[in-house]
Amino acid sequence: MTRTDQPRRKVLISGxxxxxxxxAFWLNRYGFAVTVVEKAGAxxxxxxxxxxxxxxxEVVRRMGILPRLRDAHIDLRRLTFLxxxxxxxxxxxxxxxxxxxxxxxxxxxxxxxTDALHAAVRDDVEFLFDDSIDTLDQCGHxxxxxxxxxxxxxxxxxxxxxxxxxxxxELLFGPEERFHRYLGYCFAGFTMRNTFGxxxxxxMWNTPGRAAALYAVGDGGDVHAFLNFAxxxxxxxxxxxxxxxxxxxxxxxxxxxxxxxxxxAALRDADDLFFDAVSQIRMPRWSGGRVALxxxxxxxxxxxxxxxxxxxxxxxxxxxxxxAGPADQDHATGFxxxxxxxxxFVTLNxxxxxxxxxxxxxxxxxxxxxxxxxxxxxxALPAAAEGRPAHSALTLPVRG
Length: 400
Known about the structure:
The protein is of the alpha/beta class and 400 residues long. It has 12 helices and 18 strands. Helices cover 31% and strands 26% of the residues. The longest helix is centred in the C-terminal third of the chain and has 20 residues, at 331-350. 44% of the residues are buried.
């Protein structure tokens, strides 16, 4: 129920991907006047398929977008793993490997979720596209914001939902390096034509320290191409230089077999390349003064956990719920409740790295042999009837 009898507190959310619109939905529901600023010129579509499972499913159900997401479910049917020569090592049911539950958990194109979230809030909140926060100054009465576009406004509260490389976090807590936990890999993702006959499946080629995967969400069109490799240190000089990213990936995979030469050729011309380090954000606290962080900005778990989307959705719900009291409630009390009630769930899911997912990218020949043996054993097992406990380790509070 919207609290129309109380003055509406003005809040700014930086980031309009997943955590941002989800937080906007719930804060608007609880009576806040919400503005969302996003540096992109429009809602971001495209991107790799993402998982919605466990507690996050209850969040999207309460938002009313679960039927739309079920209609967009990809229904991945097979994961096939190949050796260095392209021979099959094992073929497994996706849920057996991911800990998902067939018929319940969802895998949808990222753009389908972002479109659904934007549609759920676009008529109720203000969106400022093609802009971002330039400066942030906390004062006694609120937070003074200067936007890159030149505008100046004051908000009661500000929220950083602006991802792994959060500008809001940098302004509030300092350089990313303080909180960045590098997991030893880099990856490049892009799309290319599906000339491989793949349908509702993913095929992955491995050698020690390198992986190449093709992911087909349908019967034709494009496939998602993915190149992952071990790297001793984050290549900071490449993060903002697309040509340096292409050169680094081409160098690492120069002698690779299977379909990798064709993937590298497609990489050179890809207009949707996404390159980054595989890493987490670990912070001792997620708020300071009148500013709080949510999603990857506060606790990115890395794609190795498959829980980035889940943490964003659940974190947004919990943050908004912590602030759902009367307008004169102290925001510090709400922020403390958010951290107290959400941190264990976040930590459990961040700690999933090392429980099987990271072993998909072994860095030594011995580790690769062990992984392949594990996959052969999994290939003989039925899909699990229950998901990983961490996925559902938090029960959502009920709010009006």
